[in-house]
């Protein structure tokens, strides 16, 4: 049931506020400023003993993990590696019983992720499945299972699962910090207070849909689009590029903004659009100088920044603004225009939005 939407994907983009609310629901104790670890699904793993984290995933789930890494390391000071499931078994395993290996998978059936998490378990790691589908194969093979409760995701392009996965991993980071006493309860309370704002701010951000539909006309004939960002926004850029490729078959690449001058800047000319993620965060100034470099070479700029940022607007050809908010909330909001942009470009191109060519919702072959 598409609930009145033209496509499942659009419906699922619009279900993000609900998806995040369901993920955080019952796991955050607002009164005590604590994470409810039992409700999170951890009962066999002892979080106090963890001194290293490995996140294993594919595609969008890999980007959710890569993005959340910044928060987990910040809260816990525990080193986090994020590994592509399909590659992780080709390296010598160095995990041990103090390593928490996390399989992040919407479907819980992705064969690469399943094999990789089994490999970590065999080598002695504590394994946790963060999945959307209850009773999945990946969950069966892990010590603990934590559901994201995003609700069924039908569109092949993952959207609401992404934001639910990011929120789940942030909660896990807070849970680890709480158990290992790495953050004060005041600090945890502060983070909880931010997280609970995400659903309503997502709701607000979704109102950008008709504006994005309008500007998508400018991009649907492009043969290639670059996406750049720094820090967490690097992985929002990666997610934006993946979605565009999947849905509209337009070549796209996501790049860390600082890497531009190490090669890809050679691509820039007056025909190339660059989607620049530059909201007001700790890396803002540096990203702005990258945008200026692109502009100086004639590249066309679609920036995604903070509402009312006239400086950024003045150096952009197109501008999409999200509300000013804290760094925990930002990546949730900037991901929305990524999903909507690829959706509307695909609609304009007339591709099969919910079932793009050559793709399957869960990839069960290696
Ligand atoms: O079910 P999973 O989260 O394990 O799936 C992983 C990827 O196959 C998936 O995210 C894929 O990249 C999506 N089609 C992206 O939109």
UniProtKB/TrEMBL annotation:
Q: Does the keyword Glycosyltransferase apply?
A: no
The record's function comment reads:
Catalyzes the first step in hexosamine metabolism, converting fructose-6P into glucosamine-6P using glutamine as a nitrogen source.
Which gene is the coding source of this polypeptide chain?
glmS
Q: Which reaction does it catalyse?
A: D-fructose 6-phosphate + L-glutamine = D-glucosamine 6-phosphate + L-glutamate
What GO terms fall under cellular component here?
cytosol
On assembly, the entry states: Homodimer.
Tell me which domain of life the UniProt entry assigns to the organism this sequence originates from.
Bacteria
Which GO molecular function annotations are given, in alphabetical order?
carbohydrate derivative binding; glutamine-fructose-6-phosphate transaminase (isomerizing) activity
Q: What is this protein called?
A: Glutamine--fructose-6-phosphate aminotransferase [isomerizing]
| EC number assigned by the record | 2.6.1.16
According to its UniProt record, which residues of this chain constitute the active site? 361
Give the organism, scientific name. Answer: Fluviispira multicolorata
Q: Where is the SIS domain?
A: 43-182, 215-356
Q: Which UniProt keywords apply?
A: Aminotransferase, Cytoplasm, Glutamine amidotransferase, Repeat, Transferase
Give from-to of the shown chain within the full protein: 251 to 616 of 616
């Amino acid at each position: 049931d598409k609930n009145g939407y033209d496509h499942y994907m659009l419906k699922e983009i619009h279900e993000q506020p609900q998806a995040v609310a369901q993920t955080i629901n019952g796991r955050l104790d607002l009164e005590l400023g604590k994470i409810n670890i039992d409700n999170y699904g951890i009962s066999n793993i002892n979080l106090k003993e963890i001194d290293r984290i490995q996140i294993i995933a594919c595609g969008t789930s890999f980007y959710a993990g890569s993005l959340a890494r910044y928060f987990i390391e910040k809260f816990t000071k525990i080193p986090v590696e994020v590994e592509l499931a399909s590659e992780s078994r080709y390296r010598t395993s160095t995990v041990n019983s103090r390593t928490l290996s996390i399989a992040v998978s919407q479907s819980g059936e992705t064969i690469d992720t399943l094999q990789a998490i089994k490999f970590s378990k065999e080598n002695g790691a504590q394994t946790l499945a963060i999945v959307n589908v209850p009773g999945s194969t990946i969950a069966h093979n892990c010590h603990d299972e934590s559901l994201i409760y995003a609700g069924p995701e039908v569109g092949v392009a993952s959207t609401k699962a992404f934001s639910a996965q990011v929120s789940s991993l942030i909660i896990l980071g807070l849970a680890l910090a709480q158990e290992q006493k790495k953050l004060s309860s005041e600090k945890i309370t502060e983070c909880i207070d931010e997280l609970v704002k995400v659903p309503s701010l997502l709701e607000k951000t979704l109102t950008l849909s008709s504006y994005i539909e309008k500007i998508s006309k400018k991009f649907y004939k492009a043969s290639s689009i670059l996406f750049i960002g720094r820090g967490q926004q690097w992985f929002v850029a990666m997610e934006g590029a993946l979605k565009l490729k999947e849905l509209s078959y337009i070549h796209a690449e996501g790049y860390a903004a600082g890497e531009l001058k190490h090669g890809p800047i050679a691509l820039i000319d007056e025909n190339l659009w660059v989607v620049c993620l530059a909201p007001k965060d700790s890396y803002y100034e540096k990203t702005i100088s990258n945008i200026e470099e692109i502009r100086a070479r004639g590249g066309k700029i679609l920036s995604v920044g903070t509402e009312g940022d006239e400086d950024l607007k003045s150096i952009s050809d197109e501008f999409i603004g999200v509300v000013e908010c804290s760094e925990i909330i930002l990546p949730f909001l900037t991901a929305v225009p990524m999903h909507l942009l690829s959706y509307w470009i695909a609609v304009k191109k007339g591709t099969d939005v919910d079932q793009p060519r050559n793709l399957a919702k869960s990839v069960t072959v290696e």
